[in-house]
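ingest -> validate -> predict -> emit
validate: passed (alphabet ok, no gaps, 204 aa)
predict: started
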Amino acid sequence: MRQIITGITAMAAMAAGTLALTAGTLTVTAPAAAALTCPSGMSCGSYTISGLGSRKQQVLGAGASVLDLAVALLETETMQASSYPYGDGKSGDAANFGIFKQNWYMLRTSCSYFSGQSTSQYNDGAVLNSNLGEDVSCINQGQSHYGLSRWFAGQRDGQSGLSNPNQSVITEYVTAVDWIEAQLASNSANLSNDTRFWVSVPAI
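emit:
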């Protein structure tokens, strides 16, 4: 925003921007928007993917929270399970399904849809690859069942993560999701535009 006020000669600075008064003219210039600041020691950024905004709205419409949306954006580039190999190239309790890459251990121990199933029945989790509503329901059930802190540990590293939730691979994952969630929440347009926010988190 730029505003002209005549008849004043002075020089000052304001925290909200730059205030310069010269030759009878006052020019107020708001500061430029800050560039993305990555979490300490981590790489991050954003770029656009055609159609991603529509998919964000589908996911939110299925009952996902902004936190859930952040998990999906971190785990799957287009928020489609077809964007990664079946099971994420894993089997048993380590196999991942759906747009959030929920592992089979967490699914069978916290989601009613898979209640009572065994490690060897992990292929049943594939239903989440094409059933968005159940995928969202399962992540929300998992968060409720374990509590958010323990859920993060299990989401990142399954049963091992639940046993040892203070591993650096888990705290880094939480930091990455929190950062993406903050970007989404900073502007409501980010919940429906084609911008993907990302943080580089090594696969385990």
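The mean pLDDT is 86.
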